[in-house]
Design brief:
The chain has 230 residues and is α/β, with parallel strands linked by helices. It has one domain: Creatininase (Rossmann fold). The protein has a four-stranded parallel β-sheet with strand order 2-1-3-4, sandwiched between helices. The longest helix has 18 residues.
C-alpha cells in the first residue's frame, strides 16, 4: 500500500477531482511493536482506500504533528498546534488556487485537537473542510470489524492500530504485540502529565486481539462512512 501518491500531473488532470484528501499523522512512540510513523501510516491507509472508492485527489501526508504527550519516550517529534494549523491552511490555500473546492483532513492522531478548530473556521471561508474519520465513524468501524476493546480503552498501539497495520503494512509490526496489552482507562490528567503517567510501555489497549482481517474490515467501514461526509 503506497504511502505517497505517485500520480503525474496528467493523471491529476484526467481525474479532475475537486475534493482533496490531506492525510495527517504523527511521529511518536507506539510501544515496542509499532513504528513511530504509525499514525501517518494509518491516515494514509484510510486515504488510499477512500481514493480507490471515490473521485478524490490524494495529497502527500503531514508526518509530524502535535505529540507532546508522548515526549517521554525516545523518537517522538512534535510541532506546535499553531504550526500545524498554519501548514494545513497553507496547503488549503494552495489546492484552492489549483481548483480544489473542498479539503478533507484525514487525521490519524487523536492529539491533533487543533484540526477541529481549523475545520470549524473554514466553514466561513472559500474552501470548505471536513475532518475524517469523526469519532462516530471510528466507533462504527470498531463494531463492524468486531473489535473487542472499546474506544476509550483502546487509546494507543492497541487492537485498532495494530489491526490496521497488520492489514496494510504487516512487515512493520514487530513480534511481541500479543504480550503488550495494558489498560489505563482513567487518564484524566493526560494533557498535563503526559501518557507516561499511565503506561511504561507506551501501549494503552489490547494489541493481542489484533488481526489483519479486523484491520481490513475497519477500513471498509470507513470507506462506507465517508459517503456522508463527501
Amino acid at each position: 500500500m503506497d504511502v505517497l501518491p505517485i500520480d503525474t500531473m496528467l493523471d491529476e488532470r484526467d481525474r479532475g477531482a475537486t475534493v482533496a484528501l490531506l492525510p495527517i499523522g504523527s511521529f511518536e512512540q507506539h510501544g515496542p511493536h509499532l513504528p513511530l510513523a504509525t499514525d501517518t501510516l494509518v491516515a494514509c491507509a484510510v486515504a488510499v482506500e477512500l481514493a480507490a472508492a471515490y473521485p478524490l485527489r490524494r495529497l502527500p501526508p503531514v508526518t509530524i504533528s502535535c505529540s507532546h504527550e508522548h515526549a517521554a519516550w525516545p523518537g517522538t517529534v512534535s510541532i506546535s498546534a499553531t504550526t500545524l494549523a498554519a501548514v494545513v491552511r497553507d496547503v488549503a490555500a494552495s489546492v484552492h488556487r489549483a481548483g480544489v473546492t473542498a479539503l478533507v483532513l484525514v487525521n490519524g492522531h487523536g492529539g491533533n485537537y487543533v484540526l477541529g478548530n481549523v475545520v470549524q473556521e473554514a466553514s466561513l471561508g472559500p474552501l470548505r473542510m471536513a475532518l475524517f474519520p469523526a469519532e462516530p465513524d471510528w466507533d462504527d468501524a470498531r463494531v463492524a470489524a468486531g473489535l473487542a476493546t472499546p474506544g476509550p480503552s483502546d487509546m494507543h498501539a492497541g487492537e485498532l492500530e495494530t489491526s490496521i497495520l497488520l492489514h496494510a503494512h504487516p512487515h512493520l509490526v514487530r513480534p511481541g504485540f500479543a504480550q503488550a496489552d495494558h489498560l489505563a482507562d482513567d487518564r484524566r490528567h493526560l494533557l498535563s502529565r503526559g501518557l507516561r503517567a499511565y503506561t511504561e510501555s507506551g501501549v494503552v489497549g489490547r494489541p493481542s486481539l489484533a488481526s489483519a482481517e479486523k484491520g481490513r474490515a475497519v477500513l471498509a467501514s470507513l470507506v462506507h462512512a465517508f459517503a456522508g461526509h463527501l
